[in-house]
Each structure stands twice: as structure tokens, then as C-alpha cells.
Amino acid sequence: MPGAYLPTPADLRVQFALRFAALDLMATKKTTEGNFFEDFAAGQVFHHAIPRTVTDGDVALYIALTGDRRPLHCSSEFARSLGFERAPIHDMLTFHIVFGRAVPDVSLNSPANLGYADVRFLTPVFTGDTLRAQTKVLGRRETSRDDVGIVWVHTTGYNQREEPVLQFYRWAMVNKRDTNTKTDEDFAPELPAEVATGDFLIPEQLDLSSFDPVATGGDAFWEDYEAGERVEHPQGITIEDAEHQMATRLYQNTARVHFNQHLQKSSRLGTRIIYGGHIISVSHANSYDGLENAIRILGFNAGAHANPTIAGDTLYAWTDVLKRIDLGRDDAGALRLRLVGVKNIDPREEPIELKSKDPERDRESYNPNVVLDLDYTVLMPKRPA
Amino acid sequence: MPGAYLPTPADLRVQFALRFAALDLMATKKTTEGNFFEDFAAGQVFHHAIPRTVTDGDVALYIALTGDRRPLHCSSEFARSLGFERAPIHDMLTFHIVFGRAVPDVSLNSPANLGYADVRFLTPVFTGDTLRAQTKVLGRRETSRDDVGIVWVHTTGYNQREEPVLQFYRWAMVNKRDTNTKTDEDFAPELPAEVATGDFLIPEQLDLSSFDPVATGGDAFWEDYEAGERVEHPQGITIEDAEHQMATRLYQNTARVHFNQHLQKSSRLGTRIIYGGHIISVSHANSYDGLENAIRILGFNAGAHANPTIAGDTLYAWTDVLKRIDLGRDDAGALRLRLVGVKNIDPREEPIELKSKDPERDRESYNPNVVLDLDYTVLMPKRPA
Amino acid sequence: MPGAYLPTPADLRVQFALRFAALDLMATKKTTEGNFFEDFAAGQVFHHAIPRTVTDGDVALYIALTGDRRPLHCSSEFARSLGFERAPIHDMLTFHIVFGRAVPDVSLNSPANLGYADVRFLTPVFTGDTLRAQTKVLGRRETSRDDVGIVWVHTTGYNQREEPVLQFYRWAMVNKRDTNTKTDEDFAPELPAEVATGDFLIPEQLDLSSFDPVATGGDAFWEDYEAGERVEHPQGITIEDAEHQMATRLYQNTARVHFNQHLQKSSRLGTRIIYGGHIISVSHANSYDGLENAIRILGFNAGAHANPTIAGDTLYAWTDVLKRIDLGRDDAGALRLRLVGVKNIDPREEPIELKSKDPERDRESYNPNVVLDLDYTVLMPKRPA
Fold first, then answer.
1. How far, in Å, CA of A192 to CA of A233, rounded?
2. Interface mutation vs chain A, best among C19, C30, C259, most A CBs within 10 Å
3. Global pTM value
4. Mean pLDDT, contiguous 10-residue spans, chain A (385 residues)
5. What is the ipTM for the molecules in this complex?
6. Closest residue in A to B215 (Cα–Cα)
7. What phi and psi, each to the nearest 5 degrees, are found at residue C118?
8. Distance (Å) from the alpha carbon of A215 to chain C's nearest alpha carbon
9. How many contacts (CB atoms, under 8 Å) link B and C?
């Protein structure tokens, strides 16, 4: 089904022409406040602006800002040993660049991102590639609140050869322009509960049969992980305002809450909120120890930013192994994992429940220290014979 | 006239030889405090040290530190669609690197930069180019104060092929070494009030006839802007010490007031002052929304750093359209703009006068929240037929 | 003798095989707390994980984070004028990347690095090179404390052609896993008191006979420095948490004390400690003025991180000239220097003794403002005839 959102070059030409005609009519409007709930309609397609060429500068900043250590992305020698011509960029860097393209059209007025589904990492991205993105609106729904609704979209990122590099479903709370608007819309599309195993894209050139664990420092292969096992990652990282601002601007994500202290000082938190994607990146970097041999993110099945993070928070992470998936290859299999990011508590020292019963509301909610709950799948080499 | 400052290779050889001879005599002096008012003389030429090769790393940091989104500088595909072989670097990045070269010789002892004139962006700069700069002293003048004078200079930046990439006049307050010095100098050169239309350099390879507004996200073309119109930019950005320090060091600008808290804690502001050029860059980046199709900075006619900024300040911007200039081309025209940067006030929420009457001094002065008043000219595509 | 630690490719294959066998046995252990004092044994060799390709992004970040201005590393034109094909990276960037590789195996449980010896900068590193490192354990010794011992190691960094790029001895305090452990080990290897003059590696392609001092801005050549002379560097730089964290993560150095405020808040200092290598880099960058023509670091003879630094500290530096060393070349000689870094005091304004007598302990100790005492040797062009 998601294949439906990968348009052909002919489609693109038509869509560009239509959009250009639309521009013509809006020419006197110089700035926009972004789209509000009222502006979205199922079937609408946004061709996001600002194509972005990825460079070595982006890769170095990604390492400096997140602490990433995966050798596939920082060693061209290691990448070549696995069949690539040179090092592909980190899957999360691709994610952030594609996501950033979509913000001005989709989520400039979004107080919260509610979820992801069927996030798939497709053609690997290399420095020199230029990424663009487009988003199709799937549906929207009124909520119990007057001021916000929920919007469902499907976003695809492409490289300069129009090959899809990433696709994802996402739904977000979006402010209404006018609290009196009543659309009676109540359409929530049915989304895949997980990335289907047959949809995982394993790069053609990748060959893990001569995988060198000395390069990763990792002792454990696909066979060594068992469903139910927990890996507690030792690293903890404190995030500064300058750091998350630089990361978010690098991705040209323009959501105001991440940069504007003058605006945020009167918000509930009183300060800037860290971009949730940066929290995924830092938690994923923290998860290196114990998952050194995970070679690629294949997809996100589901994800929640459980609580906000702000500058000064220290992030820790653990990973629960959910499932071992055999891909029918000799060199590698997939692992379905649950990456949990927590703030200001070291879960190795002080055990913490992911969720607890909220006595007032009689339902489970995330522990206030939990900031990320990500159900995702990675490619992991099998133990060499 | 400014052509007079573009020396031939033969001139350069002579100047290098002279300078080398001068070095010989000063060999026992290992460090310098920089030049003071007494050290400047009209006609003097400084060949600034530290040639600088621009790289993808600089470009990525420029984006991360300023929030720049102009696709000409971040998409090689978009650059190629306009006739370039690949993406030229941001005009302001060229400015900062050239300006940074000049600081050790010109403004290490300058408490304030007073103005710019006839700032012209010339041959575009690409990653891999190596920039150097030189400055000719034009004149100096005593002031009513014993401790400072004013020095006028003309600086030119060159690439490795000795093609000029930038030139500008600048005048700055400069400390005296000795408050008893009385030079009786009173020469202020006459400077152009604006960049002459005939002096705008439009890169030969640039062809805007197939300009794609989907790539910029911009709805407005040259014809859509009217003199007198105000564009209020929605973005607001808070600047951290780590950010402006990294930017200023990237440009190898060594002015102490930007980096040295131990020195600055006893200053009037009590803290580090943000490099004025960083304020231009952030304000220019903020001005993207509403001016998406501005393709190049052609020149600065005049500019003032109206008030200092420090870490924690949030910058907003608006642009007043001053004039539409027809360049006699079918694909593009020029727009003369006034970019105003303000701090800690959102001008869309709270109207602010640029200047107000100072009752004590009976003259107009900038509102204390105004930090930048830049009169500049950009190249803007015409609406396709 | 140090040549003994440069293994042949055949050695490497054997060592890799042995390590791989070791991995096999540890496969069920997913994360490690790093090695403790008990885990080290003389003769042991660590092949450090995570090979790292150096890029233009690393070079730009190095400049932005340290304030480095040496034109050999930022100008490919200047590098070519000295015989290189393009600009080699800064010697300290090579140091940090090699050092960072070794941290997870060697110093994750090290509360203090005690010293360096015979640090030699070998084959120059260029962007595109991929660095890896290995460390041989030389010995260990119990101390008067129950909880820590001292470990001596020798680390070598290699490029992708297995050419050594850096080697150094280092000894560090290392925590015991169990305070009851008594090894009775008391072996401290004898280390060279200085890098032997014959061991300095001067890159073959380097030719300083047409050295252009206009490019460096430096007035002084090898002959102009006298033993006993002090050069006081004017620059002072305040370090922010975001800056040293980015630098240390760029080098993929995982020592927790630099990143984890949640952990550090209960430490003696109450905050994150800045990576000592960053202090060397910033002090070395501060030392540019007065030593502009130093073209390469040949080696460190000895070095001490005299006191810790934290965010908000302002660093100043001075250099004492220890010795002029003739290398038997016409174009250049070596200078042995002592680089002293101090915090929160400008030594040009307020003289400061390097060490003072501690009355209680009846021995000399570093002044609390001194943070770095580095005895090192640089290559310096001779004055052209």
C-alpha cells in the first residue's frame, strides 16, 4: 500500500505545474504562519521547499552533536569492507533532513507529534546526494478540545535520482486557526502496526559475510540476542541549548519552540523544548554499547515522545529485545527492539517502570522521566561460521 | 574608483617584498597588541595573514549556527538549475571570512565599528576556493574624545586566482595607544552613498529564466514587491554564547570582546558582545520567510549595528522594501531593502519604532531593542511569463 | 625501542584472529563498564574499535571549537606552497582522534591521566584518511590507595595504509573493580625523557625554503627565539559546556565525566570536567600569536594537566622557549617549548608562578590557576637568506 505514495516522474511534473499555478494566486502574500487544522484536506500533496545536499560537514556535526559512533557512517574503509563504495550517512540524519523539509507545510502549528508508523529507511544516502520531500495528507479528526485537531500524513524523501530514501506515516496535533471551526471530520486512516518484514530494504551492495567485529568493538551477533532480554546502555549525555539548536537548525527544521526563548518563556515549561528527533538520535547513540553490530535501521514500527526534554536534562537509554526476525539470509537477520530514553535518572542505578497507573485517571501513563519509547527494527550480522 | 584597490600581480610582488623587509626589522617583537590609532596612515596597505580554504564543513556550520535556508547554498541540484556548476557559498560566509582576515591588522583595538559603504559581492565563492584579504587605509580623524579616533579603510577579498570576491569600505572607532597623542588629522574620505547599479556583479553563469519557486517555497517575485511595503518575518532565534563563539572562531575573527568572559566581566555590559556580523547573518536567515526568492546579495549600501547583543537575546527581523531596480534583464531585477534586526521583542506582536527622539540630547537615536539597520540590495527573479 | 610497537601486517592478522576468538567467549556479555586496574596485564594489546575517516567537517569544527588559525591546516594554497598536495589536518586533531579510539579500552575508569612521554607525530594525516589505533599495556603499579592503581600503555595510531601517524606513552590512574584486590604489581616502565632528535619525523614532501611569512603573519623565525625567552600570548578564550562536549564527542571520546551532568553533580567539582586534550588544543590555538611560524608539532616530551577546567573558565597561555635544536637542514630547525595554560587570570596583567611550595606538604605543587604544563617541540622555518 505505501507504494501508492511513490509518484512517477510524470506525476511529479504534473504536480509541480499545479503547485506553480497555485503560487500564482497567492503571490501577494509574502509570509505565512504555516498551515492550521482548517487548511488540511485528505489527498492534498505538499512538495516541500529547500532541497538539501548532504555533505561531510553535516556528518561531522551529527557526530559532534549526538555522540554517534557507528563505524559504517564514520569510516569509509569499514563501509567498503561491507560492499559500499563509501560511507552512507546515518539513517537518522536522513530522517531529520526529510522531516525538516516537511515542517513548514505540516507542523509549524503543531504543539505535539503524536506518533509514527511504517517508517522505512530505503535507498541509502551518501554525501553529495540532494534530498527533497513531499507529503500527502491522509485525513484529520476533531478532538475533544476546541483549539486542536489531529492530522495524519504520509511523507516521502527522495534523492536527486527520484529514488525514495525514506517514507513514514505520522500524525500530529495541529492548532486550529479559529477555535470556532467545526469540521465534523473524523477520519483516522488505518496504518500498519509494524513495518512488514517483506518491506525491509536491505541495500543491494551490502554484504555482511566478511563483517569485522573488531571495527565495531561489538561482541554480540544476531543469534546472541533473545526476546525478553534487556540491554542497559552505560552512557549518559547532558544536552545544552546550543547543541540542540544547532542540530535542529542543521536540519533546517523551523519549528519555533526549539529556538525562541522570548516566545517560550511564557510557555508551560518556561523554556525551549528539544526537537524530539534529536532525542531519538542521542538515545540511539547512547545505545551503541551493547548493540555495536547493528548495521542499519530498517524501520520504526511505532514511536512516542513520552515527555518533553529541555536543556540541562541528561539522557540515558535501555533497549528491550522484542523479537529476532530471520530474513532468509546467511549473513544477517533483523532484530526488533524497543529503545527507551529516560532523563535525569540512571536506570542501571535506579530501576524505573516505563509506565505507571495514573490513580486519578485510572489509566497507564508514562513515567515522567521517560522521554522516548521507540519500537524499531535493525539489521544485525549473523555470527560468522 | 574602487578598481584602484585591485592590485596587479606585479604590485603584489612588490608589496610582499616591502612587507617582508619590514618584518626583518621587527623580528625581535614576538607578539603585537594590534594597531592603534597612531599606527594608521592613509595609503598604507595591509596584506592580511592566514589564507583560508572554504569547505563543506564551513557551509554546514554556517547553516547550523545561523539557521540559513537559502537553497542556492545548500542544494547543488538547485544551483545547477540556475547555471552554476555547484552551490556557491553564502555571500555572508564570504563576508565573514574576508572580514575576519582583516581584524588583527585593523580592528583589534576597535571598540565599535561605525559603518560600511559600497559593500559589493563580486566573484561567487565555492568550496575549495582559498580566500585572502588586503586593506588600504584611506584616512583618519580625531574625535572629541582623547582616547579614540576614527579610521577609514577599504578591504578587498580575493580568491586563489586573484579575482576579487568582495570589497567594502568601513570606518571604525580605534583606541589610541596614548591619550596624549594629538595628530590633528581630520580626513574623512567621501564614500559612495550606495552601491551604483552599474557596479552590481551578476555572475555570468547565472540564468534565472528557469527558476523553480517550488525549491524556495517562495510565492513572490520581483514584480510583487512595492517600495514602502513591510515584510514581517515570523522567525525568532535565541543566541547562545557557544553558538556565536563558534561562528566567530570559524571565521578566525580574533576580536577579544567576543570570547573572553574574564576580560568582559568588568566591561559595561558585563559579558561577551556578539560579533555584529553574526547578527547580520541571523537576521538575514530570519528574513527568509517572505523573501524566499532573493537569490544573491548584490551589495550593502549602508549598515549600522544599532545596539549590542549578548547571549540569551532573541532576534527578530522585518524588512522594508525601499526600491525596485530594473537591471535591464528579463530574468531578474534588484530590490533595495532595509533589514531591521530587533532583540527581545516580537515586532509582529508589539509595534516598535526604529528610532525615537532622545529628549536629553535633542536628536533621534535607535530604539534600544534595535540591533541592526542594514540597507542592502538583492537580486530577485522576475515572475516567469 | 618504540619501533617495537609498530606491528607488521602479518602480526596484525594474528592479533585480529586472537581477538576474534576472545570475542567468541564473551558473546553473552552485551555491555562493558570498561577495563579496571585488575584487567590490565603487561604485553596485552588492544585493537581499538571504530575506525574514523577524517573529513572537512572535522577540520571546520576543530577551527570553530578551538580558534585555531595555523594556515597549514586551513589553506590548501599555503600547504601546496610548502610541498604538500593539500592541507594536512592539525596534529592535535590527529592526537584527539587516536586518543579517542583508546578511551573505551584504556581509560573509561580512569579518574586522572598522569602523564605523556615520547609523543611523536609521524605520517601527516589528510582528509579522507581513515585512522585506527591500538594500545599495548606496558605495566602497572599499586599505589598507596586501595581503590586505584597506575597503568602504563603505549598507543599507536595508523592510517588506512598501516602507516603510523602518531605514537605515545601514557600513564593513568585507573580504578580497581574491587578495593580488596592486591596485585603486588610494581612495574613502572622506563620511558624516554624526551623525544630523541633523531626520531622527529619531518614529512618528506615538506620544503620550507620558500616559506611565505605573509601567510602566517609571523615576524619571527627559528633564529629569533632564544632559550629562556618568554612569549606571552594575548588571546583569552572562555569555554562553554556545549563547546567542549561537541569537541570531545567529535573525537568519539566516551569518558563519562565530560558529558554527564547527572553523574557529575555529585562529584567534587559538581560539574563536567573538560577533556584535557581540548585544553591542549585551546592553549595551542591561543599560542598562535608570537609563534605564527611554527609549522608542525614534532612531539611532546612531557605533559601534565595541572588542574581541571570547567565550563565558564577563561584560558590564557604563555610559552617559554627551552631550547633551539638544529636539525642539520637549511630550511628549518626545531624549538623545544614549554606551553603553560592558565585559567581565569591574564598572566600579562598579573604575574603568576607556575608552582609554589605547599607549606603543609613541604613540596612544590602547581598554582591552582595553572591547567596545562606541556613540554613540546615544534618545527620552525629558518630565516630566509
1. 30
2. C30
3. 0.93
4. 36 42 46 93 97 98 98 98 97 98 95 92 98 97 94 98 98 94 89 96 95 94 96 97 98 96 95 97 98 98 95 98 97 98 96 86 90 98 91
5. 0.92
6. A49
7. 50, 45
8. 5
9. 149
